[in-house]
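Re: Re: ligand-bound prediction request (bumping)

Still looking for help on this. To restate: I need the protein modeled with flavin-adenine dinucleotide bound, output as structure tokens. Inputs repeated here so nobody has to scroll up.
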Amino acid sequence: FEAAEIEEGPLGYMVEDRHLYAAFLAAMRAEPGITHLPATTVTAQEAGPAGIAVTLSDGRRLAGRVLAGCDGRQSGTAQRAGIGRTGWGYGQAALVCAVAHERPHGGIAHQFFMSSGPLAILPLTGNRSSIVWSEAEAEAKAIAALGDEDFLAVLRPRFGDFLGPVTLAGKRFSYPLNLTLANAYVGPRVALVGDAAHGVHPIAGQGLNLGFRDVGALAEVLVEAHRRGEDIGAAEVLERYQRWRRFDSTLLALGMDAVNRLFSNDNPILRAARDLGMGAVGTVPGLRRAFIRQAAGLAGTPPKLLRGVGL
Ligand SMILES: Cc1cc2nc3c(=O)[nH]c(=O)nc-3n(C[C@H](O)[C@H](O)[C@H](O)COP(=O)(O)OP(=O)(O)OC[C@H]3O[C@@H](n4cnc5c(N)ncnc54)[C@H](O)[C@@H]3O)c2cc1C
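Reply:
Sorry for the wait, this slipped through. Here it is.
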């Protein structure tokens, strides 16, 4: 896929997590409305007709009209609101690290589809890339336990030599992969955001982007409701957020699930089907553009904040 095929510019930007954390923390510290940093753990929540309150691990209580649950795949906010989850494990784990290589990557992201799982090579600054390497769980555990040199010896034949010799450029991490969708995105005075609502396979690197769309949509819905004089935690207000986001995220989660299943195996019939499908995507310009727009987060109606428009 070429960025030149769409008018809006690059397909995306790769930003290292540590830079995002630092920028978000600095922005939160500069915002007088945000208190209680660094955060303590939320241990309880209680919704009533006029508001919702949470109890922190240090015993303090915070109250408001609505509680946004942004607490990840095992969301306690969802559990305490009685919202169940649907999902399954992939029997895969992702090995993640940064690597340095001799040749420049030219700003090109690569994804190699292997029967045990995909290997993504994502361009960072300089001659560095981030890899997200999905493997069957037992294999991933064994590879994660290797020393750095042995790890590289297993990685190199998969990575290939198109970027020249490869070395490690940071710590290695391993994450179990699963799909987990909240059965509802809203509950009494509660809205779920990000992985708390939808934990997806990282095959297309869309997890955080989906979360940003949730944040933009929830902010827009709440601000509009406030301007109209509505109670921002009312069920009909939160329902607007759910209607906006749930279908889009579920569709993407199941799409990524299907792509992972289709590519993470050696079945000759599926191999023929996917070659045919990739051939079609590659040669039909309309289809290719549709894929590019979806991957770049330009499909559908992005919330105002994601279009750079103020609320
Ligand atoms: C291997 C891998 C690679 C990925 N690559 C990409 C990528 O390239 N691009 C992309 O867009 N996405 C990617 N993702 C997905 C992305 O990491 C997640 O979608 C994103 O981190 C979700 O953010 P979140 O804030 O919703 O949840 P989380 O990052 O899970 O954060 C939840 C936070 O809530 C806190 N918390 C939980 N319970 C409590 C409590 N009781 N009290 C207080 N705090 C609490 C946790 O400590 C945590 O800090 C990847 C994921 C994986 C596993």
